[in-house]
Design brief:
Layout: E1 2-11, H1 17-28, E2 33-35, E3 45-52, E4 55-62, H2 68-76, E5 79-87, H3 90-98, E6 110-112, E7 115-120, E8 129-135
Parallel strand pairs: 1-4, 5-8
Antiparallel strand pairs: 1-5, 2-3, 3-4, 6-7, 7-8
Protein name: Methylmalonyl-CoA epimerase
Keywords: Metal-binding
GO molecular function, one term: methylmalonyl-CoA epimerase activity
């Protein structure tokens, strides 16, 4: 089912995004990869990826105040908001956890240029937004 931890997402304010990315990249000694809006399954996100060892750290912000991510930051402040797990077969992984009572935000996976994702509702995971991601090889 789950191959392992894919990474985690840190939500920040749009105004501080570049500064936060540069700070985290310097701390971990890595080069950030700035992502295009089309790299995301959900519209309205700006972001950068930091590859730290085997894990990915995504520093993300909403590009306007109507985006759910920006609303999360306005309500909760900046910080970790999502943990991502890579799976081999997204539909199979979804079925296995749905059979255990887990609820997803969407009934069907969302596509993006690198694969497909779906998000487990935080209420199903003790308040933690959780993502299953299937990377297309």
């Amino acid at each position: 089912m789950v191959k392992g931890l894919y990474g985690f997402n840190v939500a920040v304010k749009k105004e501080s995004h570049k500064e936060v990315v540069e700070r985290w990249a310097a701390i971990f000694g890595v080069q950030p990869v700035y992502l295009k809006p089309s790299d995301f399954a959900v519209p309205g996100i700006i972001g950068a990826k930091l590859k730290v060892g085997e894990a990915n750290i995504f520093i993300l912000a909403g590009d306007n105040e109507k985006v759910a991510l920006a609303q999360f930051v306005a309500k909760n402040g900046e910080g970790v908001f999502l943990v991502s797990f890579e799976v081999d077969d997204l539909e199979k992984a979804m079925k296995e956890v749905v059979d255990q009572g887990v609820k997803f935000v969407s009934d069907k996976p969302l596509s993006f240029p690198g694969g497909r994702v779906n998000f487990i509702h935080p209420k199903s995971m003790n308040g933690v937004q959780t993502e299953f991601i299937q990377i297309e090889k």
